[in-house]
Design brief:
Elements lengths: L2 E5 L3 H13 L3 E4 L6 H6 L5 E5 L1 E2 L2 E2 H11 L4 E5 L4 H9 L4 E4 L4 H17 L3 E4 L2 E4 L4 E4 L2 E4 L2 H12 L7 H10 L6 H17 L6 E4 L3 E4 L1
Parallel strand pairs: 1-2, 1-3, 3-6, 6-7
Antiparallel strand pairs: 4-5, 8-9, 9-10, 10-11, 12-13
Length: 220
């Protein structure tokens, strides 16, 4: 049974969501004290988080950024805002989906099911240069410890790893990111590639990603 964490300060909405999810066969947990929500989120052992943007004393989007520094837990933003900028920011910070209130319960349940299914499908362990690659956790581990990648970095790394030794174009990487609801522009792709290359180098994988001008990138 999947465990869903509700990070919602409106008690009636929280109770309604909890009841809806329980009736759909999910286990639920709720945060009711927002003094240190990040600590509670990290210790909740959730399979998915429903995260409101407007929270007392903290911004949900900032919480999402903090979560993504270390965890790849699926997150769906649930908010009363209708500003497109909020949706773009949420997705760029690593949200897996975004839904506005008042929401259609059936659509919400379908989105939760889709995100959970996608996250399980991405749970693949493989290896690279003697390191264990856990795509679900977004990590590489070995004698040096564990290297945590952001969601975008892992999507890029996984794509390059699947085609190791072959050139992957920038357009192909952009398509992979967009297919996974990661809204990213060309400049942001360059930044992500640079950060990924630096992280791999610092972790002992020197010259892991080679740039082929006008062609793309190759993992060696």
């Amino acid at each position: 049974m999947s465990r869903i964490l509700l990070v919602e300060d409106d008690e009636p909405i929280r109770e309604e969501l909890s009841e809806l999810l329980k009736n759909a066969g999910y286990e639920t947990a709720c945060i009711t004290d927002f003094a240190s929500p990040l600590d509670e989120i990290m210790s909740a052992s959730a399979d998915l988080i429903l995260l409101d943007i407007n929270l007392p004393g903290v911004n949900g989007e900032q919480l999402l950024r903090e979560i993504r520094r270390t965890e790849d837990i699926p997150v769906i933003m649930v908010t009363s805002r209708t500003n497109e900028l909020d949706e773009v920011l949420s997705m760029s910070y690593g949200a897996d989906d975004y839904i506005t209130k008042p929401y259609n319960p059936t659509i919400l349940l379908l989105r939760i099911s889709a995100v959970l299914k996608r996250s399980r499908g991405n749970n693949v362990q493989t290896s690279y240069r003697g390191l264990t690659v856990d795509t679900a956790r977004g990590s590489l581990s070995g004698e040096r410890g564990e290297l945590i990648l952001t969601k975008n970095e892992m999507l890029i790394f996984r794509t390059l790893l699947e085609r190791q030794g072959k050139i992957v174009s920038r357009d192909e990487l952009m398509t992979v990111l967009w297919d996974n609801a990661e809204y990213i522009n060309d400049n942001a792709l360059t930044v992500n590639i640079s950060r990924l290359r630096t992280k791999l180098s610092d972790f002992g994988c020197d010259n892991a990603i080679e740039t082929r001008k006008k062609q793309g990138y190759i993992l060696i």
